[in-house]
Amino acid sequence: MSRALRTGRPVGPEHNRVAAVQITGSRGSGYLLTPWLVLTAAHVVKDEPEARVTVVGGTGSHRARVVWRGEGACDAALLVSDRDLVRPETADRLSPVHWAKLTDDSPLGGCQAMGFPRAQHDKSRGVDIEHIECALRPGSGIVRDRYVLDVKDVSPEPASGNSPWEGMSGAALFADGLLLGVVAEAPRNWRHQRLEAVKGRMLLDDASFVDVFTRHAGTAPSVAELSSAVRMRKPLALAGSLHAAPRDLAATVRSNWATARQQFFDRVGTSSEPTDGRRDLLAWLQQFDDPFTDDVEGRRTLIDRWLTNPDVTPDLKVLRLLGWLDPQGEAVWKGSPVTMESLATACLQGRLETDGPAAGVYRDLCAGGLLDALAAFAELRGLRGTQEAWDDARESWRQVAGSVHLPDHAREWAEGDARGMLLAALLPDPRTGEWIRTAFGRLEPPAAGRVGWYDRLCEQGGDPGSPVGRLVRTDFAAYAAADAERLERRAARDEERRAGLEAQAEEARTLAAAYAEHERQWGAYEAARCTPAARWGAAVRVTLWLGAWGVLTILAAWLVWGWTRPSMAATISWHLPLLTLAAYAARLPKSVRLGAAYQPPLRYPRQWLPAGLAGIRGGLLKTGFVFGAVLVAGVLLHDVGRFLTTILFVCLCVAVYLYADHDEGEASTTLRDWDDEHQARLRAHVTLQQEAEAHRADTRHLSSSPRERAEAYSALVRDFADGTIDIAAYAAYRRRLRSSDGDTG
Prior knowledge:
alpha+beta, disordered N terminus
């Protein structure tokens, strides 16, 4: 059954099947019966065995052999090219040509032809197509056995005395989508408004033509009877207009989508009791029951499979209806035109959006059924089989994604809108492929080995040109690039942390070495300080130092009493050394323990003098004590006698012993040990040991500020290297470390 019969509207001559046929000295028109088989007029190719054929929008000019040539009134010829004259995507859209046989002699309007007449030739613009509409008068031209055509609304000017229709010979003549014949000549005396055509019946009655056609086309000619009688049908009302023809109803549906859906399908009722709107539509469709002019089989499928199926959504029912009414017209979905470009936009951009037209189309595509319904339109015929291919690609993708442990964010995308890229890769539109290639160019996937899950995904995804391969190298290349960047940042942090730990370890080692060196120095100092010789030296020094003070006290007795009572001064001189001996008894053990650290200024008498106000007060106190003791002793000796005086001096000796043995308060400044440097060393040593213990127990991270740590640490190391310990600097260093630890937490 012809395409015209299947679709219910005239197909007409298609511009992408119009051919220019040329030999040396002659040019005409032709029509593409198959991608390689051309029908033209015999006088266009004359007696030549081959000609050059060029199809509009085709693959260029190619040689074609003349495989059949008519004789006499049958001015027609068949040419075969060794290669396709049109591109593959165009060849896929070509429908079979169906021939017509007139069943009556009534005039037939609405006939059409396309060719390259001289009237359309311009030196500056070249040759162009002329699409003419004409009326067929079967009663004319009976003697010549030709179809006579009256050209409608066209009256070209003659060019240089020749016919303006020259070059139109060989054009195919169509009526109601059926091939009627081949334009052969333009008779004179009709003011260039009449053409004649070879009847298609003459070709179909020629066994040699049918044989050659069948051999090269792969099938016998499909023939349908055609009558000029017009059948009156009951019209259907929609949006305030009456519609008798499918194409008229289709135009109203396109511009009133919501109205059509509401009237016909929103309230469908039941199969036994349909609503008025659906019942009127089904009754109107039933009128198209002529097997020669109507697509009866397609109408039955439309009603039984789609319009009465409760599982099909109302919008899909409207689209299916529109595809049957006018498959050659514009595809529309929910009132908006649908093209390959809009489908690609929905797949590539709509999947990324939450609202908008593209997002809506994408959701409808994912719901299913839309692709197959759109494939009913001639412009979207390339979508045939795309839904099945998409389902297969999605299943392949599920297997690939399931075999790889994807991160959570990538897994969510893999199970959701990633499938839009699969469909985009399957759309038969060159622009979609160009968009995807552009996406390839913009994305920079991570190098192999950087992101393990992406490497495995590429491995499992197979061919980069396949839908799954393109999805992997676009959407998931972006995810992998982001993961690679995160891994780089993490590696940088790990490296920084490792460097910090190494610096901390190095710092600990340096401090440990410094602690060890300090301990060694302290051990050497202690060993030198506590040798027997050092202890004997300390005993000698304390003896000499306190002995000198004993001599001075004896001088005090003679200064007080020697002038008046020399005998009393002599007696007191024997008692005063007892005080020095008491101090000596208290100081000797301490001096021996200090060893070399006990260094009174025996050689430097200037250091005996007080250095400040406190020292002067201490010196006066000591002097007053000595002279007071001498004065009191003399008075007691004169008044109470030697015995009580001796008892007094014994009590004073005890007091002096206790006073000299005391190490804190005023006593430490009154009776000095001359060991200040040793005490400072000892305090520093104890503090450093405590800090070392705290450092070993401290397991927290040190400061994240290398500069702050370096400044304090360098100062400390310098002190260690110089053999001195600055306790204030070290304490400040530890405070900085703890403070920065608290900041970085």
